[in-house]
Design a protein that fits this description.
Elements (H helix, E strand, L loop, with lengths): L6 E6 L4 E3 L2 H8 L6 E5 L2 H8 L22 E3 L18 E9 L5 E11 L5 E11 L1 H15 L5 E6 L2 H8 L2 H7 L13 H13 L1 E6 L7 H14 L3
Parallel strand pairs: 5-8, 8-9
Antiparallel strand pairs: 1-2, 1-3, 4-9, 5-6, 6-7
Helix pairs in contact: 3-6
Amino acid sequence: MKDLKKIYAVKVGRQVGLFPTWAECEVQVKGFPGAKFKGFASKKEAEDWLAGKASGAKTSGKRAPRPVSAGASAVRMPMEENSAEAIADEETDFVVYTDGSCLKNPDGPGGWAAVIIDTETGEVRELHEGNPSTTNNRMELSAAIGALSSVREGSTVALYTDSKYMKNAFTRNWIRNWKRNGWKTSQGTDVLNKDLWLRLDELFSSHRVFFRWVKGHAGNTYNERCDLLARSEAMKF
């Protein structure tokens, strides 16, 4: 089992330096535009990263090959708690693919799935669950929640999804506006799936997430795998 990160380094934030806990690091980076931070297993690795040296948390262990990204594009994050800087997959802690399915949308049997790749060790994990009565959008959100809940706090994550519903809520500031309006849409109606949005928003505040949109059913290896697992879960009901 891989050791949990012990120290956090902040390169761009309210205060630059090393912090022994995520809580202390979060104070420096949450809500800070363009924040740069990362967790490390040792003080030396953290100091090397701050100094701009090549060595760091990802210099040891087998690294996963860069995931197939046909049709994918990096999406800049305008929300302050998610840095708008471009970042390569290999510079993240985890690359995550998610998908949701509902066989008779809405209120039919559904499932969600996630493939999680640890870029340091090359470990690939799969998560998937089903629901007897749900919607496609709820399964898409549940997949992201399941994946982000499973990685260590403070991780940098590249999140591949074919759900514009989920991506746009963050990249187009829908969720920020919903919160300001008391979880009402611009038309004054209740926001659907509020329970899931609340949990996902909480997770986004605990990680540094970069969206990559990928076209569904277009031959992307991991997206297709998620689709298969999600549909398999739905078919159990």
